[in-house]
């Protein structure tokens, strides 16, 4: 068994695992019966228990094995997010702006077919900092790259203005002082 296939323990997307396994079938030029036997050696933990519970003769061929495996592991399948999910990505209380930029960028890269305008709108919508929203809204960039450059300009300027203190820490401190008086 090629080492890159690894084993499937019931966690992760079963389709991703099948993709790797079927690549090995083609690379190794296994016959279908060999493929079925090799597949069972990749199963462990809950999927091994599932496999051991199958009645003898209940699986007819590799396609049947694949269908039953998918059906059993379907709750682990990763579902693709739609463009509407972008508006659910919000900056968390206490999360730095840099951390939010990273998380937002990573999350939106997983949304297939997301338009540039939707990505920009979702980012601004997800911010908690009014001063950053106002800064970005003045001559709002039309590309996500330009939006990120403008965001980092704001972050850098705030850090310089606060002598290197994290802008997020400074704003929380000021908010605490206002609420205390």
Automatic annotation (TrEMBL):
<dbReference type="Pfam" id="PF03732">
    <property type="entry name" value="Retrotrans_gag"/>
</dbReference>
<keyword id="KW-0548">Nucleotidyltransferase</keyword>
<keyword id="KW-0695">RNA-directed DNA polymerase</keyword>
<dbReference type="InterPro" id="IPR005162">
    <property type="entry name" value="Retrotrans_gag_dom"/>
</dbReference>
<protein>
    <submittedName>
        <fullName>Reverse transcriptase domain-containing protein</fullName>
    </submittedName>
</protein>
<keyword id="KW-0808">Transferase</keyword>
<feature type="domain" description="Retrotransposon gag">
    <location>
        <begin position="38"/>
        <end position="127"/>
    </location>
</feature>
<dbReference type="GO" id="GO:0003964">
    <property type="term" value="F:RNA-directed DNA polymerase activity"/>
</dbReference>
